Amino acid sequence: MKFFVDTAEIEPIKELAATGLLDGVTTNPSLIHKSGRDFMEVTKEICGIVDGPVSAEVVALDHETMMKEAEVLRKIADNVCIKVPLTVDGLKTCKALSGDGTMVNVTLCFSANQALLAAKAGATFISPFVGRHDDNGFDGMDLIRDIRLIYDNYLFDTEILVASVRHATHILESAKIGADVMTAPPGVIMGLFKHVLTDKGIEGFLKDWEATGQSIV
Fold first, then answer.
1. pLDDT at residue number 76
2. Is the overall model pTM greater than 0.90, yes or no?
């Protein structure tokens, strides 16, 4: 499973990239607003930190303007992935962009039927929002299972990018189902490293090592 971080904050991206475990970054207009920085500037900086896909979202709703925005965004860097909404115009744009080799992330997916359409449109990634799905009384993991089954049935190349990840269980269950990618806030990813028994074990090992009076370096 590929790990993307969902943020427009530079320091957490650098911290995670330094681990060698970060495969990409997703952003959206809300995250850009939260960062308080210029959209183009921050996207370019992020693209220089990670080698993998960096999702930059169009804000237009009509196909013609989406294409114009995409043309500007994909000039930022070779690893920019154009993010479009799951609408008729969004998928029309996806089809046009993917046809010339541009990476496309189709976002705001809430049904397996929508995911099927995105795959037919040639999406590089489909982003089902599991947390928001849960919030509205549905099971986000059921959505991932349905999409995985459909994509496997027809050998679609579109990667399932689990989004709106709220906690470690979302990541674990998505990995068990076979999702290709997950994107989560920095805090959720950093939380995966932690376990009380790991901390307790380290504490015990260090105490015993100190008692030996030895040094490795």
1. 97
2. yes
**Taking Cα atoms as reference points, which of 29, 113, 25, 35 lies closest to residue 69?**
29
Active-site annotation holds for 200: no
Q: Is 71 helix (H, G, I), strand (E, B) or coil?
A: helix
φ/ψ (deg, to 5) at 127: -110, 90
Average pLDDT, the chain: 97
Catalytic residue among 2, 34, 68, 83: 83
State which amino acid sits at residue 48.
G
- For residues 130 and 162, the answer to whether their CB atoms sit within 8 Å is yes
What is the rounded CA–CA span in Å between residue 33 and residue 96? Answer: 28
Q: Identify the CA nearest to 144 among candidates 102, 131, 195.
A: 131
Whether the Cβ atoms of residue 155 and residue 121 lie closer than 8 Å to each other: no
Q: Closest by alpha carbon to 132, among 155, 107, 153, 156?
A: 107
